[in-house]
Queue: 4 jobs
Job 1
Amino acid sequence: MWNKMNGGETSSKPHVVVIPYVGQGHLIPFLELTKLLASQGLIVSYISTPGNVARLQPQVDHAVNSSNPGVDIRLVSLPMPPIEGLPPGIESADNIPVHMSGILMKSSYKLAGPFEQWLELQMKSAEDQIQNSPSPPVCLISDMFTSWVHKSGAKFGLPTVVFQTSGAFAMSVMHSFMKHTPHKNVEGDDEYFQVPDLPFDFQLRKSDLPFIMRDPDMNPMQSFVTEEIDRSMEGSGLIFNTFYELDSLGVDHIKRLTKRPVWSIGPILPKKIFDAEGVERATRDSRGKAADISEADCLQWLDSRNSNSVIFVCFGSQSSLNKQQTEALARGLEASQQAFIWALKRLPEIELPEGFQERTKDRGLVIWGWAPQLLILSHPSTGAFLSHCGWNSTLESISLGVPMITWPMFAEQPFNSKLLVEHLGIAVQICSNMDGVGDEHVVKREVIKLLVEEEGKMMRMRAQELRKKAKMAVEKGGTSHANLQAFREYVRERHDNWVLSRRSNEEKGKPEKNKPCTIL
Ligand code: UDP
């Protein structure tokens, strides 16, 4: 049944399992990771809950149908346990306000039971050679916020590798910040303090921090997040959705800190993103969930604008602006006289200033709901991106060579913004936090700077340079490509060990049934 190929590899496929946290900023990159690993000849089981699986199914079907035959992705739907404090049916962070996402994070461990039952079944079917069953999983890939997976891995003798959906620079800062809480004894909100234990200079003010992080004693997530970060560094290794040329400071630091393999294999995005024509048509509007504008309408609008003349405004899947913030931003955009696409959440409290859409109809497109972000960022008319600096949005902008205006909102977003503004020189920051209100004059000034002025052109040139480096990193011979091969090898070796021990048992004529395989 198991054949050995030239070079020592066995011909059956290694099986890995990915277990993302249920937020779009996690589900989307985990799906891209899944596609990438499946394209490398691995079987990938993607674990989520029924609502998320239903949303992801069309994208998986598309990936499987449009790839080489034999791509093996299995979406596994586990029942969502009831969660105290959340209405039934809520399965994803984009369906609740940000301040409630802590409840979802903390309750994620409830999936451990159903997950372990599923895992046991996988092990047993492979061991008993049930027809069409895949080989047993040889590696679990958890999220920073699904650290319960480490325990399940240990029970089954499987290594758990953590896939970090944030960058290594921000992760380094977050680790040190949560551990040392250097702001604890700082008085004023605008007093600078140093974040210690980093190989680079990093200064912050309390006013740079998301509201709940300002006072460690008042932060309900302080100990949970600190523990999750620590655990994520104690697994068998870390995969980062980043590339070395962008994030070497962070990658080198995390390697030193964890003394574990760190595979930076990003940017993990649809392959066509680096083609001259941009993103593959069929995947354009299908990241996370279906867009609330048709591809044709969006393209028609973008095609009618000049090159680099449009600013795209979008705050990711979780953040939304309140009335005051929306008004200030609208006034700034209107006063800039520049073209814009603005993705706004459909929430009862969100209202544009009266007459705004009418007055800007010749140069503004408002998308209520989910925007086809990659399609927009990849279009030549898009010249700048006003973003909350979620890591996926950041990577997407960099990979498409688009400079940014930043308004970090929560989590590690202020650290991403600092990387973009202070280290890479491809962004300007206009505001911070969920409670900050952008100044309409600053919005106007910075939009004009990025779309019209020389300084904006320089930023675009630097962003385009980074795009070239991102492309090189994922191509054959590039750093991310090499790391991907190294990770594939790591998995392959464990799989081959299982095959060989299985064969030796078969040859001895006494298979050890029901014994979980031990992979060190
Ligand atoms: N996204 C999108 N359309 C939207 C909002 C977000 O396609 O209207 C995608 C975006 O391209 C990115 C992800 O959702 O891949 C958001 O992830 P990010 O890490 O930027 O932010 P988060 O949602 O986690 O705050």
Note: The first helix runs from residue 24 to 39.
Job 2
Amino acid sequence: MSDAPEFDQGASSARAYVTLVTNQDYVLGATALLRSLQRARSSADLVVLYTPGVRAEDLEPLRAFGARLGRCDRLPTSPAFNKRHERGRLHKAAPFTKGGKPVFHTPLDNFVKLRLWQLTEYEKVVFIDADALVLKNCDKLFDYPEFCAAPNVYETLGDFHRLNSGVFTAAPNEVTFRDMLARLDQPESFWRRTDQTFLEHYFPDWHGLPVFYNMLQYVWFNLPDLWSWQQIHILHFQYEKPWQTDHPKQEMLRPLIDLWQAFADGTDIPADIGRLPGPER
Ligand code: UDP
Ligand code: MN
């Protein structure tokens, strides 16, 4: 297929961790993520999908991790679909009441995640948001079926009804990709939480991963009893990003932001993350 991602190098494994960056801010995130993946010692490929919005020189830091860089466009969705999911329109139609989205977050870009199903050189892929850190090896996820994701837990029990699309398993398949595109862009379709709402609908019987495979940063202050540095495999900075210079929850999240910064710089990464002090209870 002509619009599949184009890569700078071939695949060297049947498995890959994949992330997505559509602008310089998320490249920053991906740098910390790739360093964390490297530390977790995986034999799978590391793949970064990027859109033309990212300048070539901005991608340079990612090459140091041996990542395969795949250039791709946004999905070929209709102008009407794009308009309905434009940032201002989406925020108005489905306001975010529980946390803030940074200005550099473009909802339409989220749907590019569906291009994972075009990566048919792989048997299985694990997607991880660029605003996450892998704290423990997650390779066993490659033996899990499609479609697995962790619950979107960060506040109440009701959160268990929904999945969070920051981490998921997929089996690339061009037929699935085509089918997804057709289901995605229907007249009047509005996916209030973009790819996340879509994937929940597309895979109604999604398999639940343990919450520790996508531990959301708000758990730190909302559900401190759930926090366990020893068990967290992937830490995900949903809503405000750790590299934002000013955000309202910065002081509350200080230890997590410091940890992200260590991975971003590659200095002072704690030797034993499992022994870090937990949140106040
Ligand atoms: N993303 C991106 N550019 C954007 C929006 C999203 O590259 O403008 C990618 C990036 O990998 C990001 C993921 O899509 O981590 C989902 O967005 P985000 O993490 O900001 O959403 P949240 O986790 O806060 O719901
Ligand atoms: Mn995220």
Note: Residues 19-23, 26, 105-106, 109-110, 129-131, 166, 238-239 surround uridine-5'-diphosphate (ligand 1) (CB under 6 Å).
Job 3
Amino acid sequence: MSASDVVTNLGAMLASGGVEVVDCSGVLGPETPILQLPPDFAKNTPKVEIHKISEYDNDGPFFAWNWMVLGEHSGTHFDAPHHWITGKDYEDGYTDKLDVQRLVAPVNVIDCSEQTQEDPDFLLTAKGVKEWEDAHGEIGKGEWVVMRTDWDQRVDDEDKFLNADETGPHSPGPTPDCIEYLLSKGIVGWGTQCIGTDAGQAGGMEPPYPAHNLLHRDNCFGLASLANLDKLPAKGAILIAAPLKIKHGTGSPIRALALVPKG
Ligand code: 23J
Ligand code: MN
């Protein structure tokens, strides 16, 4: 089939609903959980604010619009390579410079929801990924890989979502060897349903925050706070994860969309 036929057929399938568009973003608003770094870092991202300019009133009789206070790394969002020191030298490592061809790609969904229900500190390893590949097929070059934990069920309760105690945050994520293995397969990026791409306890790993450190070292992307991964097949969907074109941006909220064949 020619590329032209593929796109024509995809268009027809989208129009008929044979291919379903699944919303993999959470709601962005004042209640959206925001990462709080440990107190040794004084500055943090503020909560999302939405301020009304007008809503069919004296300030705008025919129109409604708002302005916002919004961090780059708030809610369902994209981490660009420039976000981490290991990715600082990539000229295309910013949200306004990156190669958009890489943002639309097949997605591999690794279901860890059973393990993470038992253990909020569950870590996906290279071994775990290889076992998933034995069951579902190989992860290919240029593809997304996302970790399903159903953490989006907690998103309306910030305490439950961040899941922190006196020993720090407790949320699932990857081991360093997991990310190294995925990078060896040539993935475009790694996504999770938690506040960041790394596990809650990843500050104590070697290297610290391995998803951030290793993905961005290799000019790859991160996705965080993804929703509705339980509605995606293990393989066979396409994920569109496009950040705003923020000048010199290190990341951006996204409307993550998955194209899923129905039936
Ligand atoms: C800054 C510092 C550490 C982390 C993060 C940001 C994120 O998780 C993020 O949103 O990229 S771990
Ligand atoms: Mn981020």
Note: The domain at 18-261 is CATH 3.50.30.50 (Glucose Oxidase; domain 1).
Job 4
Amino acid sequence: MGTYPNACVAADHHLASEAGAEILRQGGNAVDAAVATSFALSVVRPYSCGLGGGGFMVIHLKQHPRLGEVTTAINYRETGPGAVKPDSFEQDPDPDAATHGGKAVCVPGTVAGLLYALEKYGTMNRAAVLAPAIRLAEAGFHADQHYIDSTHLDDLVIPWFRKDPVRPRRFAFMWTRYLKGGEVAAGDRIHVPEQAEALRLIARHGRDGFYKGPVARSMVDAVQRDGGFLTLDDLAGYAVREVEPLRASFRGSTILTMPPPSSGGIVLAQVFGMLEAREADLRAYQREGGPHGANAIHLVTEASKHAFADRARWMGDPAFVDVPLGRLLDPAYLRAKAAMIDPARTLPHEAYGAASWSKDDAGTSHFCVVDAHGGAVSCTETVNLIFGSMLVAEPFGFVLNDEMDDFLTRRGKANAFGLSHADRNRPQPGKRPLSSMTPTMVLDAGEAGRFGEVRMLAGGAGGPRIISGTLQAILNVQVWGMNAGEALAAPRFHHQWEPDRLDLEPALSGSPVKAALERVGHAVGARKAIGNVQIVVRHGERWQAASDPRKGGRPDGY
Ligand code: GLY
């Protein structure tokens, strides 16, 4: 954790925080710094997010020089390519078609989204905000422990490559440059100066430097050679969507978060609504048991199960399907759900909702920025799973997403996170897959319908565990009174309704709390890390910024 009097950035890599803070020191606003942080992350967290991915950005500026107060959200989630069909994956003999290789790649939105945000809400020019990322790409960086752990996770990266001798040839750039033939070790220099050339083209030509010309052709070639859908028309047609943030409230604060196709914002708002309806219980647990007592964990878990069940059934891209936001966020509905929560037991599985789904994900990155003028950005970006599709746009060296797997690609089959979805989340051209990314702000209640001051920013990585991590970081500060560093170091728990399992981090699963949770009916599992969260918290006249110790980032500011 760092404490700063003026402005700061909390990203999940110290070089990205430093890139954003450099822009803040030059007088840039939160959007300028966010854009610089994101482009830097593309270089130093290539397995989490980057040019070939997508994301969501929630912006709140107190005093933009031209626009005054700005409160908005930018949706630059990847879209289904023009040739994809709802059933494109049903008969595919390759069980990994939606996660590895060309067919997994959706139309990237990050560059369009960042440039849109910069042009409309930033104050600096492209060359200035891209300069730190270009320097990092030219210099390279050293793989940290999180990089190494991510490449050995489950069956996704190096273990997956070793299973089939064709794979190192099929994904040769990934295998040789990012994974060093499967021998990458902590401290190794990862040097992909080719990405600097793509970044320079973006600095020079803007959106056209990426969505047209040699960079566009490199993406299409990589994807089509590997049997995927992406075309030059898909790239040229990519459209950013600007939307109103989803608004909710909790204990007198205003919450601004991401609407669909994020599921995270709705789930967060639902859980806050249910917890407000159980305020008496929450206060009792504040006096007795605390945040890691079985009672508090049970209450938050049960509320989360109700919300995750609604996620599975109702959520998708609102440009294609009707997401009944009004009903899902209706206070009466949330009070009724809250009333169902029994402190003494869990409910039968079906009592929570009507559809289904788990797996750890480092393939996402969240950062928070506050500027010296009270402006803020909360931004989450992803290439989906670690190193996305494993395809790299050559010769430019950036990773292409595998966001296709966030759609329901095979009926009756869960995706890589163990998440099942309803038909409303089938792939379609132009459609955005349902996401768990939850970039969030907590503001003081403002007067006369106006927004108050920023109190806290939060968001994370980790697939569905993004939502639990973000929720618990906010509760740790707002309810349990922790500082920013304590709020992230605290152990976490996660339940996503399906599978019916309450995962505890080690500090909880080795404690008497586990037995108490089993007694009220939870099937308890263990997980080393639940999400990777970054937060900024207002503390008097200063900002506390913290990067999750689980990913090893470090904030910066002044
Ligand atoms: N790709 C992870 C998410 O958007 O939920």
Note: The chain has 21 helices and 21 strands.
